[in-house]
Amino acid sequence: MSLFDFFLKSEVDPRDLKDKTLKVNKTRCPQNHRCPSVRACPVGALTQDKYEAPKIDLKKCVKCGKCLRVCPTGAISFQ
Ligand code: SF4
């Protein structure tokens, strides 16, 4: 099992997040790589143009928390 798969195995309980919104902190994102969180999202809620910070489609997001676990800089969080 890869480290990537290991991190994806643990999920956040969506009931703990019902009043929170997923946000991308652009100042924490170096915007110099392909975002691993885009690949981690099981519903395609994250997209990325070139190496820019990812964008979130909040209508698609199911608040699983998988994207948070693979972002190396902690640029994605629930607030
Ligand atoms: S919380 Fe889950 S569904 Fe929402 S953007 Fe992150 S990986 Fe996708």
Report on this model:
The chain is α+β, with helices and mostly antiparallel strands and 79 residues long. It has a domain at 1-8 and 30-72: Alpha-Beta Plaits (2-Layer Sandwich), CATH 3.30.70. The chain contains three helices and four strands. The protein has helices at residues 3-9, 36-40, 66-70; strands at 22-24, 46-47, 55-56, 76-78. A two-stranded antiparallel sheet has the order 1-4. A two-stranded antiparallel ribbon has the order 2-3. The radius of gyration is 12 Å and the shape is globular. Bound molecules: iron/sulfur cluster. The site of iron/sulfur cluster has 14 residues, from helix 3.
**CATH topology type of the domain at 1-8 and 30-72:** Alpha-Beta Plaits
In percent, how helical is the residue content?
10-25%
Q: Quick one: how many beta strands?
A: 4
CATH architectural grouping of the domain at 1-8 and 30-72: 2-Layer Sandwich
Strand fraction band? 5-15%
User: What spatial order of strands do you see in the largest sheet?
Assistant: 1-4
Structural class determined from secondary elements: alpha+beta
Q: Helices and strands, in N-to-C order? A: HEHEEHE
Bound molecules: iron/sulfur cluster
Uncertain residue segments: none
Radius of gyration of CA atoms, rounded to a whole number: 12 Å
Gross morphology is: globular
Largest sheet: 2 strands, antiparallel
